Input
Amino acid sequence: VAPNRIRIDPEEVSLTPGDTRHYQAYSVHDADTLGDITEEVMWKSSDESVISIQSAKGMATAEGPGEADITADWGYGPDFIASTGVNVDELPIRIAIDPSSLVLEWGDFRELLCYASYPSSSDRDITDEVIWSSEDDQHVDVTPSGTVEGKYHGPTTITATLEIPVLTDSIVVDVNERWSGAWIYPYRDVDPQIMPETDEAMFEIYPVDPNGNEIKDTLEDGTVVTWWQSPDEGVISIKSSSANLEVVIVTGLKPGTTSLMASFVFEDVTYTAPAFDIEITPLYTDLILTDVPNY
Output
């Protein structure tokens, strides 16, 4: 059965400069059977600056941005000529992460964006097209979609990489310290700032968050309480009430005014609490003499 037309495969493609594509031509018969005539037709591009093609083989190369048509001519008249469109997109000339720098609180999440810039068109969001990586994912982790998580204090470089063409951009993400300080708290809310001699009171140390909030009952795993002390341990004595020094027992030894100090370490950062003032009062304040009757 004689063919009645020809067709080109693939049809209507989009490429980027440097891409190659092998076009094939087929003769089409009434029964819709196909015959490969790729090397029998004459191939031609309507714009060689957009896409070039080998006239006898059908191998095309995208040259630059624009639109063009690829035509196959079998040489048997207009019924045996077929064309298909090609769009060659611009390649970006640079990419940029937004924001260009970032400070996170410990444990916070933030979504990064990435934009590509083109020579003659507006920027385009390519956040989901780049490969995201972290210089140290123990400090700052980043997901394939560009969401970062602050995990450890200090700066880390986050990079976005576009593969075609190879373009990269990086930003520094800095994670604030987990806590802004420490504080000493009287155990069970008892106020022992004034204590008689020989009395005992218990104290705890807890962190202060970056907003200045005193966080009770929140010594996280990995926290090490390093010391408790007083500038005058002749007035009070200090002994531990827990294995990790989180709670101590203070005993009044003699009248006087002193203070209690403590510190803990978390993620290699030392946090020292402001001094907690304590006054030890005499056990007896007055000696009263009374007359003793004679018998």
